[in-house]
């Protein structure tokens, strides 16, 4: 289904666009990824990196009006669909940013995010595209800075090779704790599934995921339950 760009008022309400030039040369003039800067309040903020057409983040925003949500994606037409979805639902706690997330790291604010979702990121099938993968050491480093103590990082993919890379990095990084005892989980059943989840499930692909929490003795988020699992040093066995 084709979607027209939002009218100017809807775009003003929901959509920001940061060019590479702005992100490189004018970072200090752009709002940071924090609730005060994006929403003018102090509510908890959750971020969906590569949100696509926004099914998942809109569902989260609808089910938790006391928090704020931001979806980032490179692809403007996908965000037009996401904006349409948010506007039709009358959501007042969500915004979308069209930008390359890898250039947005300077806009992250320390301990400003309650949750970060990286769901079905592009795996870059061809070897020469793998370096474009969003999940890497830098991503983890930046997320560790931006996720607040007690906040979580949710990683979901259908791509085994990418997932193995994620697991290897996570197992070396002892700063996070898993919220599950298993090294990883298969299957994902949120109340609303994203476009790519529905597509991969229709094709019979296995969904791999894990959820990490930035540990804290005194989590600032009552909603987030600290997990029981610990990162294991050896390579993970597949859950059966
Ligand atoms: C496979 S789709 C998944 C979309 C959505 N998360 C879902 O589950 O349906 C990956 C998305 O990541 C976006 N993306 C890829 N690289 C990106 C980057 N560097 N910055 C922001 N978005 C990116 C793509 O435009 C695409 O919408």
Explain the overall architecture.
30% of the residues lie in helices and 20% in strands. The chain has one domain (8-213): Rossmann fold. The chain is built from eight helices and nine strands. The protein has helices at 8-14, 20-25, 35-39, 55-63, 76-88, 137-146, 160-172, 195-202; strands spanning 15-17, 45-49, 68-73, 94-98, 113-119, 147-157, 177-178, 185-186, 208-213. It is an alpha/beta fold. The structure holds S-adenosylmethionine. S-adenosylmethionine binds at residues 50-52, 72-75, 78, 100-102, 119-122, 134, 194-197.
Biggest pleated sheet? 9 strands, mixed
Order of helices and strands: HEHHEHEHEEHEHEEHE
What's the alpha carbon Rg, rounded to whole Å? 17 Å
Low-confidence segments, given as residue ranges, are 223-240
Shape: globular
Please, what is the CATH homologous superfamily?
A: Vaccinia Virus protein VP39
């Amino acid at each position: 289904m084709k979607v027209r760009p939002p009218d100017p008022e809807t775009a003003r309400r929901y959509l920001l666009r940061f060019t590479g030039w702005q992100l490189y040369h004018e970072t200090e003039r752009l709002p940071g990824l924090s609730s005060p800067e994006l929403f003018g309040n102090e509510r908890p903020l959750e971020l969906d990196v590569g949100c696509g057409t926004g099914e998942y983040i809109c569902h989260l925003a609808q089910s938790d009006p006391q928090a704020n949500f931001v979806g980032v994606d490179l692809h403007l037409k996908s965000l037009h669909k996401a904006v349409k979805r948010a506007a039709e639902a009358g959501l007042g706690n969500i915004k979308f940013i069209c930008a390359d997330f890898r250039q947005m790291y300077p806009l992250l604010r320390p301990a400003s995010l309650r949750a970060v979702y990286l769901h079905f990121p592009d795996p870059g099938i061809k070897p020469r595209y793998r370096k474009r993968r969003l999940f890497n050491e830098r991503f983890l480093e930046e997320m560790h800075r931006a996720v607040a103590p007690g906040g979580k990082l949710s990683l979901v993919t259908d791509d085994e090779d990418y997932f193995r890379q994620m697991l290897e990095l996570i197992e070396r990084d002892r700063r996070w704790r898993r919220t599950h005892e298993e090294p990883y989980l298969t299957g994902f059943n949120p109340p609303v599934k994203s476009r790519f989840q529905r597509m991969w499930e229709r094709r019979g692909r296995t969904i791999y995921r894990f959820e990490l929490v930035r540990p804290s003795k005194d989590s600032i988020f009552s909603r987030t339950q600290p997990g029981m699992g610990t990162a294991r040093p050896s390579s993970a066995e597949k859950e059966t």
